[in-house]
Structures are given as C-alpha cells and as structure tokens.
Give the backbone structure.
Amino acid sequence: MKKNVSIRIICLFMTCLLFTACKSPEEKHDKYIERGDSYFEQSDYIKARLEYKNAAKIIPSSSEAIYKLGLIEEAEGNYQSAWSAFMVSEQQNPEFLPILLKLSEFFIIGQQTEEANKRIDKILAIDPQHAKAHALKASIYLRDKAFNQAQQEIDLSFKYDQSNLIAYSVQAGMYIAQKKYETAIQTLDKGIVLNPKEPSLYLLKATIYSEQDDVQAVTDVYTKLFEIFPEKISYRFDLAQILKEFSKTEEARKIYQDAVLAFPDNGEAKLRLIQYLEVEQGIGEAKQEIQSFIKNEPEQKLFYLWLADIYTRNNEHENAILTLKNIIDTDPDNWIGLNAQTNLAQIELSRGDIQLANNLITIVLKKEVNNIDALLLRANLSFIQGDYRKAIQDLRTILNHDPKFLKASRTLAEALLIQGHNDLAIDTLLQALEKTPDDKGTLVGLAQLYALRGEQDTAINILKQVTDIFPDYSVAWESIARTALEVGQVTVAENAIKELQKIDDQDTLSKFLLAKIDIQNGHEQKASDALKAIIQNDVNAPLSAYALATLLETAKSKENVGDVKKFLSDLPDHTPLSLTILGAINMQNRNMEEAEVAFRQAIKLNPKSQDAYTSLAQILLEQKSPQNAIEVLGAAEQAIPSEAGASMLKAIILTQIGEFDQAIAIYEAAIERSDVAEAASNNMAQVIADFKYKDTALLKKARLIAERFINSSNPNHLDTLGWVYYRSDLSIQAQPILEKAMKFTKESNPQIAFHYGAVLKANGNMEQAKKYLLQATSKDFSYDGFDEAKRLLEDLK
C-alpha cells in the first residue's frame, strides 16, 4: 500500500515538472514583463526593475525588457541611462514600435529632427495608421513652420485615433502660431472632453491664457486641476508661482495658505508659505507664521530650524545661534539636531571661527558618517584652506550617495581644475549633466572648462545651446562674449553683447565687455574711460575688480601709465585690489617707495589675494631684508591659506639664505596641495640635488618625486630629473633626460648646460663635456653650481 502511495506521489511530482517544463522561455519572459508593468504603473520602480531584469535574463536580447528598463531610468530622471537603454533596445529589434516611438520623442526634444523622422517613417512603414507617429510628424512640420504638411498629418492622426493627445497639442500649436488663440482653446477643450484626466492639455490651456495675461482664466484652469487631481499639491505651488509673477501677491499667499490647510501633514506646503512670506512680505510676516506653526505643534523642532534659517539669511546671526543651540540642547542626535549643528558650523565658518566650525562638523560626522550637509561643509572648509585632496575625497563621497548633487559636482570640478586636472573636471561636469541634462549653470561651467582647454569653438557651441533654451540667461551671453574675445571672434562677441543689453540690469556688464573689445581694436583711451566710469560708480562692486585688472591693459605708453596711476591715486574709496594695482604700476616704473606704501595699505584692508603680500616681499628682498620678507609671507599664509604663492616664494628665499631643510619642508607640504605639486616637486628635488645630495634618504626622496617628470616636455623639469639622477650616481640614465632638456630649451640656459656637461664628463665623453661646460661658464653667470661648473672645466683642461 505504501508502495502505491509512493508511486502516485512520484507520478504527481513528475506531472508538475512536465507542466513546468512546458512553459516556454517566451511565456516566462512575458509573465515577468506583465508583473513589471503592474509595479511600474504603481510607481514601484524597485520591484518593476527586478521583474524586467528577470525577463532580460531569460531572453538577453529582449528589446522589450531593455526598453522597459529604460522607462524606469527615464521615470527616475536618469536620462542618459534611459537613452543608452533605448538605443540598445533599438539595436536588438529595429522594428519594435514602442522603442521607435520613444526615440522619436527623444530626438524631437533634442531638436534632431532628421533622426526623429527616420524612426517615424519606419513606424509608418510598419503601421501606416499609427496615429501617434502621424502626430509626431506633424509636430516636426510645425517646428519647421510647414503648416500645410503639419495639418495633413494632424488630420491623419485624428482619422486613426480621434482622442490622440499629441494631435490635439500640435493642432493647438498650429492655431497659436497663427495667433488664433480662441480656436486653440476650443481645440484643447475638445481634447479634454475625450481625455478628461490628461493634465498636459489643461496645462497647455493655462499657458495660452498666461501668455494673454488672463490671470483669472489661468486660475480657473488650475482650480479644475485641483478638483481632478486633489492629491497633486505641486499644481497649487505652480499656480502660486504664476500669480506671484503677475504681481498678484495676496492671491498667491492665499493659494499657499489653502495648500497648508488642504495638506496639514505636508511640511513642504508650510515651508513654501514661509519662503514666500519672507521674500514678498518681509521677515516679520514669515516669523509670525512660523510662530503660529510652533504654537500648534510645539514639539516640532523643524519649525525652529526654519526660523534659524530666516535669521541667518537676514544676518541676525546671534538669534540664529540661540535658536540652533536650543534645538541641539533638546534633540542633538536626530536628523533635525544634526542639521542644526551643521547650520551652526556654517554660521561659525562665515564668522571666521574655523576651529569651532570644524569641531561641530566632526561631531556630526561621528554620529552620521555620510551626512551630506556636513561632508559638503567639510569639503568647503578644506577648499578654503587649500587642502584640495581632502575636499575632493569628501565631494566624491557625497556624489556616490547623491549623483544629482550639482553643487558638489561643480565644487569638485573647481577643485580638480585648481589641481591642473582639466580633463577630470570636464568629465565631472559631463557626469553631472547625465543626471540633470538641462541645468544651465552646469552647462556654462562645462563650456568654460572647454575654453580653458583651448576648445573655444566647442565652448561657444555649448553656450549657444544654453541661450537657445534660456534666452534671458545673462551668464551664458557674457561667457560667449568672453570666450569669443579670447580667440579674436569680435563679431561673435559683439552679437552676444547686443543680446546681453536686452536683459535688465546688464548695462554695466555690457559696457565692460565693450571696453575689452575696444582694447582689442586698439582704442585704449576709449576703453580706459569706460573702465574708469565703472570703477567710479562703485569701486567695491565685483565687476569693478575686473575693471581694475583690465585697466592695466590700457596703460601701454608712459602717458597712459601716468593717467591710470593718477586715477587710482585719486580714488575716494580704495580697495585692496585698487591699491595692489597701484603698487604694481609703481613697481614696474621702479617707484619702489610708493609701491611699498601702496602694498602695505592694501594689506591693512585684508585683501582676498596674496598678491600684495608677495609683491611687498619682493621689494623687501631688493632691500636685502630676507627675514622681513619671510615674515610678510608668513602673514600671507595665515591670512589667505587657500593660495600657495606666498609659501613657494618663502621656500625660494629660505633656499637663497641657506635654510634648505625649512625650504624642503615647505615644498613637501605644497606637494600635498596638488595645485602647485609640479612646481613644488621640481623645486624640492632641485634643492636636494644642489645642496643636500649627500643625505642618502633625502636624495632617494628627490628621485621618487622628480621621476614624475620623465615624460615631461618642460626643460626645467627634465633638467631637475637629470640632475637628481647624476647626484644619485645614475649618469647613464641622466644623459638622455638632459639631452631632451637641452632640445626643449628655447634660449641658452647655462645651468642646464652645466648639468649636461657634468653628466657627459661622468660618462667619459670629455670633448662634448668641455663644450657644454664652456657654455655654462663663458660669462660671469649667477646660478647655483656655477663654481662647481668652473671646477669641472678646470679638471678637463
């Protein structure tokens, strides 16, 4: 009996296996796709992605599975990843209609109409009655103002699908182009009847009313959207912003207040109301509203955080500090308390208390190692102090957790640029644009990096794309003008300035850029007059700093120099920069006493640059006061630690007075900064090879440092490496390096000739050694090693 039962169980098990085996891979694939679609409709992208990936595992070449994965990337805002998935999907199945349709839409948005048309034509070849394809073709005709062809495609789209959304939008666009606004509205109303829950038609209708300045009609459309989509608070925010733009401040305020009432648990609604009141009604109204929130929910510390933000933005730092400390005392460890500590650190940093700011950041990061705000603040602190490696480390940690954090991407690019890694800086912004492709600030930053790399045409093309989308973005027009001037494209610059002049509050900037054109065209006096007017208007304005620096370009003749000097001397309000430039003019004309006075005055005004300090140090050196120069440079290091010029000059002076160990220590610290790593490495290795080569450990360190120059084309760097090899008894390796240095040296360099001659002598090539040592000693030169060169030549004689 037991045996029969066992047989039945085995038979049943085998039957199940057979049924399972009968399920084809295609059936399993379709089941996963179906489940993925269900999750996708619920916006559960994590589960949907898993199902689509399972489908792709079963049929790796599945165009549908790859397409669906692309849809998730698109929904999450990862447009570059979505684009890549869509392109792969098309490669797998060039006749898969959904992907052809999606790529057509992408190409239309990107204004690549030829590529869009290729795919639309392929869709229509497969399905001549595809309504959406006809509508997309109509949109391309409309963009090209081919109205007759557009209308024919619209008619075909309606013929095959009377409710087609795109067709209604394009038809309305046709009427808008013909200024038939009422007919456009009627067209959209027909579409709304057939698609009563499609928000895009309502929004397009509101846009038409907005362009006609019909605020009440816009409000009515949005009120309807509130009824249809009561859960969508974003529509309320959009309407409030529109009302604000139309100066309907009370109406906008009511929309925000209604949003708070309709969504009592939504913190964003309350915050939007506070921000609106602060900007439009003043800090008093905003504080009063927050106090009402606090009264209703006294345990909600988030409101105190907002209150502190208002105090901070309005420079009421003491009130902000008290409010933040109140949060920290009661809730130090939750996210609000950590946020309060980070905000307090930001305030202390702005007040110059770096130590306290650093302590607060450390406390936060001990409790929450990946706190984005604290990491960003620490990165900024490292940046200010010139520790770019630490800054980059924190910024990369931030971007690993939040790739869309544009502020971190831009700061990282800036740090990489300072280090001399322009290519890495460009890659950083390109990666940021994959996540946020339309961010105008990032696009302009990318263009500026390309310009620094010498690719001005690429930069200008990127900037023109920005101005096509954002015609009122003054920064892009300014960047076009500046970039074009760098390569002498005066007409391009003039056209950009004309566009800039159309934008409000850009008159002064336009005059400055026109002055730069005048300088290029040889009209120095005209440019000088314009620059002086800009400076006199407000010597402390940021643009005046550029005008002051540019003013020097007009001072070519003695008369012009005198004119500029008199202008700067007579300024009623001096800035550190104006005094530094005045000092530089006096220094160039050997008026050293006047130059020293100007630089000392600039230093008293706490300049943001080390230039006044380093220039004063050079004057003190000429006065044979190296210790005084070193003291001035030490003050520069303390005042502006983010710059390296003072440290580098200080090391050079220490070398000159025989303090080699101190100089080497400065160079070692500078190498860690990276932005001056090459110069510091070169100088440090040179000092060791010249003066400390008997110290075996130091000489080994010099060799390791200098070997970074093995593929360099800089003759000074190659000379340093060759000389270090020579001091390390590696003359065979030194010879080809120094041959290369001699080849790249454009002018006669007696020190390199000495080093090359010494190496040739060590390698037994006495005739050639004598030739180069003669070059090195033919005059009474002044360089480290001159006496040694003479001794080597005497040995040969």
